[in-house]
Predict the 3D structure of the following.
Amino acid sequence: MAHTHALSFAGSVVTKRYVSWDRGEQHREWAVLRHLHRYAAGLAPRPLASDLDAAPPSVTMTVLPGRPLAGAPTAPQLDALATAVTALWAVPCDGLPDVCRWREDLRFAGRLTALPRPAGGPTAVASDAALAWWDGPDPALLRTEPEVRALLGRGSGGASVDPP
């Protein structure tokens, strides 16, 4: 899996250094962290510092307290999760900078489908599936701005972590 950032921990502080940032990821993350802190403090990391124009750029924030769940979540844990997610989804999008606004960006998918077809095997099957997807209705749907704008999104799990 390709890593988009590296994490380093110093006590209750984490610094995220971006491996790639050609789509302004660091600007969006910093803006959203600050916005979430303003409207839902405590439910997301507190933004501490940023160096958005460095190479590589970085964002420093607090580490949220907690520990991994052991086994299936209990009813009170599920209730707490539902309360937290409801509060996050209630954060207004108004006031976010343009860097956080929706934009169509299918460049990566376009590059994948423009590659020569592999000779055979699983990569050829994957290439055929990608081309079928590219020729179908989904890319057109992804080029259309959604009516509902969500602030909270599912992030990448592809980080390299320097343990605390």
Observations:
- The beta strands are 5-10, 13-18, 47-51, 58-62, 159-162.
- The longest helix spans residues 25-40.
- The longest strand covers residues 5-10.
- The chain has five helices and five strands.
